[in-house]
Each structure stands twice: as structure tokens, then as C-alpha cells.
């Protein structure tokens, strides 16, 4: 249902490109990405669920990160794939607002779950003697509730902000999904206040986790430098390597798109950049955490052997 102050009842998603020769190759490319994302994240969720030695705070957060990435990709990719094989990729106003809500909810939740994982690594390396008390199941659950509360409140704020806009004749969204900035471009009225609201909330949703992660890793680095043995330092670095790669990809691409005004970053360039945190990062996360993680490799082998012999 369209907003009361809007004459638009549906939007047309323009997609990633309008070049006919690229439509089918891109369809199969992103279908492959989506398949890897679904299989990789659900496999990681299954491995963590089935192996009791992975029932630790770090893998508790990783379990939720994989669930978020699976839902995140499923919110965006199927609709994007449709734009490659259909002449007009139509989405109803209510459907657009729904996609926007889940997109914001999941991306904000991911940013805060990454900061919770950074804090977990800080406690594990800098305060190992009190790790089990500091990161008890009750504390981890409180962290998780906080993550999803921040995601929900941020998503409601962004959706309410966009829902207050007036959309008139132009209903073609220059994107492959219902994203905030392309929808602001379609508004009939002034969007200065709305853009300010977006900038403030994005700064909070990206700024707070980044500060938490930066402080956590600064303290981790200081602690590692005081470890006398080279082997001990290498082991400490290896426990953080995967997380640092994921954080850099996710926050780097997100900040590049949302913390620059549209006049500096054109929408065509912005939607290509947004492919990183909407499509590429959810696909790479399970690969990064599994290929660089001995515990996950051992759990995979044990599960595989158990299934074969059963």
C-alpha cells in the first residue's frame, strides 16, 4: 500500500545494468554468488550447531553472523536476479518498504555483531583468566539482544524516514534494490532533513561499532607486543586475522557508499560499490572464517566422517 502522501503505488528497480549483452552472464554470475552464500553460511551454522566444542562465545557470535548473512543475501539477491531476466522488475510500495526494513535491520545488526566479536577477542587475548566469567552465556545473550535491538531501532528509523517522503510521477529506482539514497532521489519534496537523518543514523550505526572495534584491537595489539615469544604473538594474531579481513571489507564498502553525499558519489557508482557489502561480503564471510580457522576445519572433517560411517 502506498503512503498517504504519495501517488506512487509501485516502483521499478532499474537493476545493475541496462546493457542486454551483460544480463544473462551477470544473472549466472550472481546466481553462483548467491548459491555459495547460502551453502557456505548454512553449512557454518550447521557445523557450529552439531559440534559441541564450537559452543563457545566466539562461535556463538559467528553462528549469528552466518544467519544474518544468509537472511541479508536472501533479502537482496533474488530480487536483483529477477532484474536480469525480466523487462520490468516491479516492486510494490509496501514490498519496497519491507525490503528496506529488513535490509537496514540486517546490515545494522551485522555491524554490531562484528563489534561484539571484536570485544570477545579482546577479552580472550587481554584477559584470558576471566574470559569464562566475562563472556558467560548470560553476557553473550545480552550482547545479542543489544545487537538486534540496535538493528530493529535503526531499521524503524530509516523506514519511517523514507516512508514520510512524497513520491510523484517518477517511480524508477536507479538501483537493484530499495536502498535509502536512490529512494531519496525520487522524492518530490525537499530531502535535506531526511538526508541529515540518514547521515546521523548511519554515522551512529557505523561509528559506534568502528570505535568499539578500533579500541578492542588497539588494546589487543598492545597486549600482543608484550608477549615474549614469537610463536605466542603469531598465535594471537591468527585468532584475529579473519575478523579483521571481514571488518575491513564490510565497513570499508559501507562507509564509502553512505558517508559521502550523492553529489560526490553518483548513484551508478554507488550501486556498484554496494555490491561489496550486499553480495560479496556475505559470500566471503563463511569462506574466510572456515579456510583460516583450524577449529572449523576439524569440525567439518569430524562431521563428514560421522555422516559417512553412519
From TrEMBL:
It comes from the Eukaryota. Residues 40-289 form the G-protein coupled receptors family 1 profile domain. Keywords: Cell membrane, G-protein coupled receptor, Membrane, Olfaction, Receptor, Sensory transduction, Transducer, Transmembrane, Transmembrane helix. It is found in: Cell membrane; Membrane. InterPro entries: GPCR_Rhodpsn, GPCR_Rhodpsn_7TM, Olfact_rcpt. PROSITE patterns: G_PROTEIN_RECEP_F1_1, G_PROTEIN_RECEP_F1_2. The chain crosses the membrane at residues 26-50, 56-78, 90-109, 196-224, 236-259, 274-291. It is a multi-pass membrane protein. Pfam families: 7tm_4. PANTHER family: OLFACTORY RECEPTOR. Belongs to the G-protein coupled receptor 1 family. Putative odorant or sperm cell receptor. This is Olfactory receptor. It comes from Ceratotherium simum simum (Southern white rhinoceros). The lineage of its organism: Eukaryota, Metazoa, Chordata, Craniata, Vertebrata.
